[in-house]
Amino acid sequence: MSVLLNTDLISVNIEAPDRNQVLTVMADKLNGVRVAKEGFLDALLKREEIYPTGLPISCGVAIPHTDPQYVTRDALAVTTLHTPVLFGQMGGSEEDEVPVSVVILMALSNADDHLNMLQNIVKSIQDDNLMQTIRSATKPEEVVSIVRPLIPADTEDS
User: For residue 106, is it within any domain?
Assistant: First the structure.
């Protein structure tokens, strides 16, 4: 699996009023590098509503994603937030929300790769020091250098 990860897909310390705005910014970045197909954002927002991805670990992390049919090639986008926004809690009830400071958006074109990538990310984000390092990054280049070792070795730079 070759995964696109570069500074074009990273947003650092942004302000957003809510999760939908965060996901819109991230989807726009994926559109900019021709990763997302028509309907990606709508499918992403709908899936997040039904299957929330907020995790109450470290500084609050969300790992949104949508169906492979909306993806042209594999990529990860990462956004850190100046002020946390609320995401629904993964596996929680409808009312359970998590203040999230780091969002890792998976855009994967093969359903079989979702679980493997999700397991890699979930394992990595349990490291509080690692998450604090990502959260403290001030430049997209820093985030790329921190996240790159967490994903498959054949990650793409471009």
Answer: yes
Structure-block tokens of residue 148: 């790159």
How many domains does one find in the chain? 1
Q: Kindly state whether residue 47 falls inside one of the protein's structural domains.
A: yes
Tokens of 42: 């709508």
**Residue 93 domain-assigned?**
yes
Q: Which domain holds residue 35?
A: 5-142
3-state secondary structure 84-150: EEEEEECCCCCCCEEEEEEEEEEECCCHHHHHHHHHHHHHHHCCHHHHHHHHHCCCHHHHHHHHHHH
pLDDT value for 24: 97
Which token pair is 29?
Answer: 């970045």
62 contacts 53 by C-beta, under 8 angstroms = yes
Position 32 in a domain: yes
Give 10-residue mean pLDDT values along the chain (158 residues). Answer: 87 97 97 95 96 90 94 94 96 90 93 79 88 95 91 57
Element (H or E) spanning 106, and its range? strand 97-107
| Beta carbons within 10 angstroms of residue 112's beta carbon | 9
